[in-house]
């Protein structure tokens, strides 16, 4: 019989007023099942925290940066299983059942397959490559809703306070503990970033940044390059 889960979903946000209510309403079934949702706000000035408060268990203020925010949420979480969810990503309807299967496995961590919300065929192709890249490398990115047993997360010291690639860095360390558990039911991630920059430009940007990261370039310089590219979009 699957191990019952005690789940904490941690949602890092910054200036997400336009979408935070729909994001949290989508998590209502999780809360109704007795699990908690923690929103970690990095000082938004658009009312994000106020909109989130009635729709989650706790709103926490922290410094900027997803790594800092996610660590702040994990520190206050009560669950034995931590799931880190971007505000523009939706869990599949069977997420809790899939996570029960994970808890019965010997894996320390895992991630979901991903699907992009855009209707273009290209977005299906991009998602296919993202999922197979993760299978081959054991690396999870934030769009794939990384989840991890609390004891493993704490033993590794959580996310490193990096401005970029914090998910890749943690995946590398978690990979020394176990292979990731892969949930094939996909999360749906908003394709707005791809649409803003353009899909091909986004692909080249992400691969270029990852290549530079694997060659040893600092996350600080990569974050600067990313911000410059986005500003010039």
Q: Outline of this structure?
A:
The protein is α/β, with parallel strands linked by helices. It contains eleven helices and eight strands. The protein has an eight-stranded mixed beta sheet with strand order 3-2-1-4-7-6-8-5.
Describe how the helices and strands are arranged:
Layout lengths: L6 E7 L6 H6 L2 H5 L3 E6 L6 H5 L5 E4 L4 H11 L4 E4 L4 E2 L4 H9 L5 E8 L4 H17 L9 E3 H6 L10 H9 L6 E9 L2 H6 L1 H16 L4 H13 L2
Parallel strand pairs: 1-2, 1-4, 2-3, 6-8
Antiparallel strand pairs: 4-7, 5-8, 6-7
Descriptive account of the structure:
With 233 residues, the chain is of the alpha/beta class. The protein has two domains: 184 residues, Spore Coat Polysaccharide Biosynthesis Protein SpsA, Chain A (Alpha-Beta Complex); 41 residues, no CATH class. It is globular, with a radius of gyration of 17 Å.
Q: What is the CATH architecture descriptor of the largest domain?
A: Alpha-Beta Complex
Order of helices and strands: EHHEHEHEEHEHEHHEHHH
What is the domain total for the residues?
A: 2
In DSSP terms (H or I, runs of 4 or more residues), the helix count works out at: 11
Based on Cα principal axes, name the global outline: globular
Largest sheet, spatial ordering of strands: 3-2-1-4-7-6-8-5
**CATH H-level name of the largest domain... which superfamily?**
Spore Coat Polysaccharide Biosynthesis Protein SpsA, Chain A
Our estimate of the beta-strand percent is 15-25%
N-C termini distance: 51 Å
Low-confidence stretches: 229-233
Largest sheet: 8 strands, mixed
> What is the helix fraction of residues, given as a range?
40-55%
What's the mean pLDDT score? 88
Subcellular location: Cell membrane
Organism: Marinobacter qingdaonensis
Protein name: TIGR04283 family arsenosugar biosynthesis glycosyltransferase
Pfam families: Glycos_transf_2 (PF00535)
């Amino acid at each position: 019989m699957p191990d019952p889960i005690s789940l904490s979903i941690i949602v890092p946000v910054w200036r997400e007023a336009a979408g935070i209510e729909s994001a949290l309403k989508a998590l209502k079934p999780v809360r109704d099942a007795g699990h908690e949702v923690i929103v970690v706000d990095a000082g938004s000035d658009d009312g994000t925290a106020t909109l989130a408060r009635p729709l989650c268990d706790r709103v926490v203020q922290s410094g900027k940066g997803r790594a800092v925010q996610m660590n702040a949420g994990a520190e206050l979480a009560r669950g034995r299983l931590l799931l880190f969810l971007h505000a523009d990503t939706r869990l599949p309807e069977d997420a809790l059942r899939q996570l029960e299967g994970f808890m019965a496995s010997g894996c320390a961590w895992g991630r979901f397959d991903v699907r992009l919300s855009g209707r273009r065929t290209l977005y299906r192709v991009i998602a296919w490559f993202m999922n197979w890249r993760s299978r081959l490398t054991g690396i999870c990115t934030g769009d794939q809703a990384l989840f991890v047993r609390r004891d493993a997360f704490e033993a590794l010291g959580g996310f490193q306070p990096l401005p970029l690639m914090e998910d890749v860095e943690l995946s590398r360390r978690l990979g020394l503990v176990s292979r990731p558990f892969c949930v094939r039911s996909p999360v749906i991630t908003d394709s707005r970033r791809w649409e803003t920059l353009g899909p091909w430009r986004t692909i080249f940007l992400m691969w270029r940044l990852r290549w530079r990261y694997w060659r040893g370039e600092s996350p600080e310089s990569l974050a600067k390059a990313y911000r410059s590219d986005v500003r010039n979009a």
